[in-house]
Amino acid sequence: MQKNILIIGTTSAIAKATLRLYAEQNHNLFLVARNESLLQTVAKDAKIRGANQVESYACDLADLSCHASLLENITLSYPKLDIVLIAHGTLPNQKECETSVQNTLQEININAISTISLLTLLANLFEKQKSGSIAVITSVAGDRGRQSNYVYGAAKGMVSTFLQGLRNRLNDSDLQVLDIKPGFVDTPMTADFKKGPLWAKPEQIAHSILKAIDKKRNTLYTPWFWWGIMLIIRNIPEFIFKKLKL
Amino acid sequence: MKLSGWGRYPITKTQTTYATQPGLVASSIEAEKTTQIARGLGRSYGDSSLAEHSINLSKMDDFISFNEINGQLTCAAGVSFAEILRVFVPKGWFLPVTPGTQFITVGGAIASDVHGKNHHIEGTFCEQVSSLKLCLASGEEVECSKVHHPHLFRATCGGMGLTGIILQATFTLKPIESAYIKETTIKTTNLAETLAKFEEHASATYSVAWIDCLATGKQLGRSLLMLGEHASPQKTEQTQQKPPFQDSQTAKTSKFNMPFDLPSFTLNSFTVKAFNALYYGKVRQTQSERLVHYAPFFYPLDSIQNWNRMYGKNGFVQYQFVIPKSAGLKGLTEILTEIANSKRGSFLAVLKVFGKANDNYLSFPEEGYTLALDFKMDNTLLAFLDKLDEIVLHYHGKLYLTKDARMSEQMFKQSYPQWQEFQKIRYQYDAQTCFNSLQSKRLGL
Questions:
Q1: What CATH number should be reported for the domain whose range is A4-241?
Q2: Burial B266-296 (b: 16+ CB within 10 A, else e)
Q3: A188 to chain B: which residues are within 8 Å by CB?
C-alpha cells in the first residue's frame, strides 16, 4: 500500500538515504529543505527511483513563523500522513559556541526549538488521524553531556525528552513516536573527522530506520552497538565522568 | 588524511573536500588553485586520483532525468554503477558497458574511459555518453559532446580528470529481459587455442578469459574463456524457475569482507600456482553452460569487500597492457613466458580481445589483445615491470592509465602519441594550472 511520507531536512545525508528507500518502494513523498535547487534535485531523483508522487516545499526551518504555512501546504497535498521523519539539523562548532551566546542559541534554535515547534504541530495532526509514525533523528550525543559537544548534546537531549513525553501522551492514540539516535555517521557534515571502525554509512542508518518504523520501535540506537556503548556512558558515575576527556 | 588508489601503492597525504552539489565544485576549485584532482570511489589502482587536494564527488549522487522509452539517463558524476544497477535492473535496464567492478562512479568511468567484456561490440563507456557537463578551472560549467566543444569532450573522455571536474553525464541504458546471464565456459589448453576461440566467438555479446599465468611450456596461456548473453525470461523460467528480476543481488554481494591485511607471504608462487591449478581444474568439460545472476558474472571480486588487502600492507600494482592484433600470439607468448619465469603469480590474470579504438586522446583500448595482471608489491617488482614495459613497447603496445602507478614519462609519451593534442586542450582551458595528479606529474603532463 502506498504511504504518504513527510521528510523534513531532506538534503541531510541520512534523510536522503532514507527517502530513497521509500521512493524505491513507490510511496508518496513530501520533501522539505532550505535550499530550493538542492530540494528540486532530490525530488527529481526520488521520482526517477520510483516514488509515486513527490511534492516539495522550501523553507528555512530556523524561522519558526513558516512552520504553520508549511503544515497547511502538507495537508493540502496529503490530507493524511502515514510517516514523518524529522532530520534537519547542524553540527555546531563547540568552541565557537563557548565564546558566543548568539551562536549557542542559534544552534539550540535549529537543533531543538525548531524541531519541537514542528513536533507540536504534527502531533496534533497525527492525534486526530489516530494512526501513523513520528520519527525524529536525535543523537547518541543527547544521552550525556560531554565537553567536546555539549551544545549539540543538550539540544538533542531536549528533543529526546520531549519525544518521551509525546510518546506517553500519544500512546492511547495508537501512534508510534520513534527516537533515532545515530552514532558516528560518515556524511558531508562530518567530512573533517578521522574515521574509524565505529563509523557507519548513511545507507546503513537508513535501512535501520525503515526497520524500526516498521516494527513500531520507541528508540533506535544505530548501528545497534551504540546501545551498549551508551549504556556504559550513561552509567559512569558523575564524579568519574567529569574527569574524563570525552 | 592518507589516501591511496585501490592498489594501495603509492600512499600520499591528501586534503579532501566533499562536493555535494554542483555549485560547491566551482568554489572548491577556486579555494585550491594548486594541485587538485577529482576522486570518486577510489577504484583506479595507482596514483591517478591522488593529489595534494582531492575533491570527492561520491556524495553528489542524484539521478537527474530518465527517459523510460529509450533508456536515456542523466545523472550526477558521483552516482555509482552499483546504484544504477540496483535501481534500474528491476525496471529492465542494464549498463551499456561495465568494467569488472560496480563500485565506480560515472565520473570515474568517463575519466578512465572504461571498457568491459563487450568492448569488441560496443566500444568503451564514453562511446555511450552523449554529453557531459564539466566544471573548468575558471569555475565555468560547460556542456560538451561530439557536437559542442568536441575537442574538450575527446580530451575529457579518458582524460583522467585532467581537464576539469565532471559534474554530470547523459548516456543510454540498454534494455534487458532478465537479471540473468547465460554463461558459456570454454576450457582451452594453450594460448593459440585461447586466441582462436576468441576469434570463433567474436559475435558473443560478452567475452573474457581467465588465464593461468603460471602455466609454462605447452600449457602456456591455458585459459577459461567465458562468454555471456543476457538471458530471456523464458530461459530463466525453464531452467531454474527464477523470476526475471529477482531482487538484484548487489546488496548481497558484500557478504564477505577482508577485515585486515593478509601477511604478505600468503601470496607466493606456490599458493597462486595451487589456486590456479584448482581453478582451472575445477572446470571439467571443455565447454559448459549455466545461468548466472549478472553480479557474479560481471563482478566476481565485488563479493569480497576490500579484496585489495589480500596482497598485504605493501599493496600491489595492476599491470594492464594492450598490444595490436598483429603482434598477438608472439607478443603474448613472450610476455607470459617472462611472467611465468619470474614466478610472480597473479590470481586474476584476465585476457580480452578489444575491438576498434575510438578517437579520444588518451583512451586505452585499441584493436588487439589486452592482458591485466596483479602483482604484489615488493622491492624487485618495479624493475621487473620496467622489463615488461620494454616488451610491450617493442610490440607497439601501451599501458592502461587507470591501472598505472609507475610507468615512466618516456614510456607514456611514446605509447600515447596523442598526448600533445591532449596537452594543447588542457592549456586552452587553463586546466594545467589546477588539475594535476601524482600520475600526471610523473608522466610529464
A1: 3.40.50.720
A2: ebeeeebbeebeeebeeeeeeeeeebebbbe
A3: 18, 20, 59
Print the domain residue range for B308.
180-406
**What is the dihedral sign for C-alpha B87, B90, B94, B100?**
positive
Q: pLDDT per residue over A116-126, tens digit each? A: 999 999 999 99
Sheet arrangement for strand B350-354 = B287-293, B180-188, B223-230, B206-211, B350-354, B368-376, B316-324, B398-399
pLDDT digits (tens, 9 = 90+) for A215-243: 999 999 999 999 999 999 999 999 999 99
Where exactly are the structural domains of chain A?
4-241
**ipTM of the complex, rounded to two decimals:** 0.88
Mutation choice for B interface testing from A16, A36, A45 by most B CBs within 10 A: A45
In this prediction, residue B235 carries a pLDDT of 60
Cell representation of residue A51: 516514488
Q: Is B253 on the interface with A (CB under 8 A)?
A: no
The CATH number of whichever domain residue B324 belongs to comes to 3.40.462.10
Report pLDDT digits (tens) over B180-226: 999 999 999 999 999 999 999 999 999 999 998 888 889 999 999 99
Residues of A in contact with B62 (CB under 8 A): 41-42, 44-45
In the numeric block, which cell numbers belong to residue B316?
600491489
pLDDT tens per residue across span B415-424? 999 999 999 9
**Is a pLDDT exceeding 90 seen at residue B301?**
no
Length of chain A as a residue count: 246
Does B263 reside within a domain?
Answer: yes
| Residue B344 in domain | yes
pLDDT at B252 over 50: no
> Does residue B113 contact residue B363 with C-beta atoms inside 8 Å?
yes
- Tell me, yes or no, whether B298 lies in a domain: yes
Q: Check residue B90 and give its pLDDT.
A: 92
Round the average pLDDT of chain A to a whole number and report it. 95
Please report the pLDDT score of residue B182 as a whole number.
96
Question: Does residue B393 lie in a domain region?
Answer: yes
Closest residue in chain B to residue A37, using alpha carbons only: B21
Does A99 have pLDDT greater than 70? yes
CB A71 within 8 A of CB A123: no
| Interchain CB contact of A37 with B (< 8 Å) | yes
The reply to whether residue B64 touches residue A49, judged by beta carbons under 8 angstroms, is no
Dihedral sign (CA B112, B114, B120, B123): negative
Number of domains in chain B: 1
Interchain contact B185–A (C-beta under 8 A): no
Are B63 and A44 within 8 A, CB to CB? Answer: yes
A44 Cβ under 8 Å from any chain B Cβ: yes
Mean pLDDT, chain B, whole residue set = 91
Q: Best interface-test mutation with A: which of B53, B62, B85, B306 has the largest number of A CBs within 10 A?
A: B62
